[in-house]
Amino acid sequence: MRSSRIRRLGWIGLLVAALSLVVVAGVDDGGLETDAERVQRLSESYACPQCRGQSVAESNAAVAATIRQFISDQVTAGATDTEIRDDLLRAYDARILLNPPAEGITALVWVLPVVLVIVGAMGVAAAVTRNRGTTREPSDEDRRLVASAREGRG
Amino acid sequence: MNALIGLGFVTLGLAASVLGAAGGVFALVTDRLYLLKTIRSWAMLVLVAAVGAFTVMEIALFQRDYSLAYVSKVGSDETPPLFNFAALWSSLEGSILLWALVLAGYLAAMVIKFRSRRDDRLLGWALVVMLVVCAFFFALMVGPANPFLTVEVPPGFNGPGPNVLLQNHILMAFHPPMLYLGYVGFTVPFAFAIAALITGRVGEGWLLETRRWTVAAWGFLTAGIVLGAWWSYEVLGWGGYWAWDPVENASLLPWLTGTAYLHSVMVQERRGMLRVWNLSLLCATFSLTILGTFLTRSGVVESVHAFSDGPIGAWLLGFFGLAAATSIGLIGWRGDRLRSPGAIDAPLSREASFLANNLLFGALAFVVLLGTVFPLVAEAWDGTRLTIGRPYFDSLGRPIGLAMLFLMATAPVLPWRKASTEVLSVRLFWPAMAAVASMALALVLGGRGVYPIVTFGLGGFAAGAAIRQVVLATRRQGWRGFLGRTNGGMIVHIGVVLLAVGLAASESYKSDRTVQLAVGESATIEGHEFTYLEAGADMNDRRLRVFALIEIDGADVYAPATTSFRQNGARPVPTPSVRSGFTEDVYLVLDEVPDPADDSIRLRVIIRPMVAWMWAGGALMAVGTVLALFPGRRRRGTEPVSAPVAVGAPAAGPPSGRNGSNGDDPAATGPTDRGAADSPSGDAAVPAGKDPVANG
User: Which pick of B47, B96, B591, B630 has the fewest CB atoms within 10 Å?
Assistant: First the structure.
């Protein structure tokens, strides 16, 4: 009894410690975004038009370097994220966005997984709670069946 | 000459597969079971054909027999022996040939492994399915992906050699075969699943037969994927290891469904539940390997991996449709026999946690599939052109991954059937302390950001739970506490934690800078000093390598380079140089060929912490898989009444494998019970509600 109370206190302590650590990690996050960090973040969200799968930030291709430079210049000039995005969309096409916009038919890529998880979670919840309160003791018939099955095993 | 012999072998393979399958079906349908033993000879003939065709192709590659179109495409006089050997699978036709070889190997292994059960219907049908799949791949080689087509070449012709990126690193000799051993390995449990559906023996017998095959295939696939990521990191020079490229996604999809299956199958072995679900997962895994091959080999998705386009798209898509339709049709047809004999007792139980696991793996597989095929669907639908890349997969994959880590911590300590919160609070206390300790340690070491810190915490939690299980097992059983599926599985879990922690750290705390350096000049990045010593070049008849010697922190010298291959014209590829360490990797790339005129280079320096943890994690996953293949300890039987029971068994002759294993962890039954055939009838005929299992 005593040990279980100590353990409960221990759990509360652990939970508080974990939460405060997460808060510290989230709040003390290097302050405001620097220009270099912003260039990096933006470069990571645009696709290199010539190398499928890699972002402008990752690719070694010449066109990626050009776009990196463009983003860097725009950031220095004080352009907003949206302005940079619109400029790039004009110069290339929608394929340059690594993150599909949630509009039109493309919204489906965001909606469908969420719907699937919700439906699946409801299914799992139904499966695990279905049997609650309907359990019963094994009957003599059940035990006999098990016994004969075990004998049959030889 | 090579072309003729090769084509002969391929035709032989096709003929033997078709005749073997047809003979098998004839024997099974007309009940002439004594004829089933002929399948064995056909299977061996298929193996001979595959080995023969493979050998002929290798001989042609080494003879530089450019009269073969394939050799003239991927061979060259200068390719060194190892890469020349690996050149066989560097393009479409050869990949299919490798696939056929691996498949024929698995087929022969099945025949040898189950040689004592020549007139077993289940096995007969399983072999028929294997032969049908063999026939498909040999037909591809006779038809649209013929590796032995001939071509006229002028005298003195020299081929281009394999794609330059494929002859830059020794891993190319191991990554594709590993991957194929994994992909193709899932054909074996798939064949048994189809056989179980056809024969109606949908109990647990076929599961037990294929348990080790599935685990082995999963291990190969895991190793293949991790090796591929490592190759991408060491060779491609972009500082990353996973681009969410369609080919990578295609290998991840069957891995995800296969992993889901490995977990949920335990519920069926133990409780007889989830039959339809497990069959569906296996069929999905097999179908996804074919779909993945279609996506990557038909040229429908451009990608850095799609080195070749071919006319075989329709064939692969058709076969995918056939596999999917057959699976769904058979499961529907056998629906009445697949009803579950039991039910899940409580939300807080091992069974329920496996269901949650399956939900997460299913969801992630869905996200990966959707992200891969949606651009194609959207383009076909209304011409929308779009890209789905890392930000999409990251933002949906991260929460799923974190939930998986949480389950990895809690599920292994949960008892079957029903747990009390008291049990959980006792068993999870030490893992929870490990969680908080790893978060605190990460913060002290300078880690920031909610997502990585939570990952480290949940990683510590999961690792704590896995280590707890291993410690308990070894305390009870000594060194045998490392063996068996349960214990090996925990080692795999620890490997997954290492991988997840390395992934989170190397993605979150990456620094990527490009500096211009003149000879003798230094730059300081992230506390490291980089000095450009000098440039140099070495050249052979195959390639020209221009490198820059960079001294890091005044100690070690590294040589990032650019390599121009003769065959590739002028375009050089960057060859990175990596200083790997326990805490961080320093990755040096030259964006462009050093200019001899002005003595200066543009050096890209990528610093990523804990990358090596991912490779260590992958290696540990492989070790854990091997340990899981050993037979585990025979456990003390549980209260028999709480074991699942096949009601029909007493009257129906031989007991099912499930009965034989006493419903306890079937890893415990050892090899002797595995041969037990499950009863042809009645196995699944458990009336709902008649089950003695359902008592809390």
Answer: B630
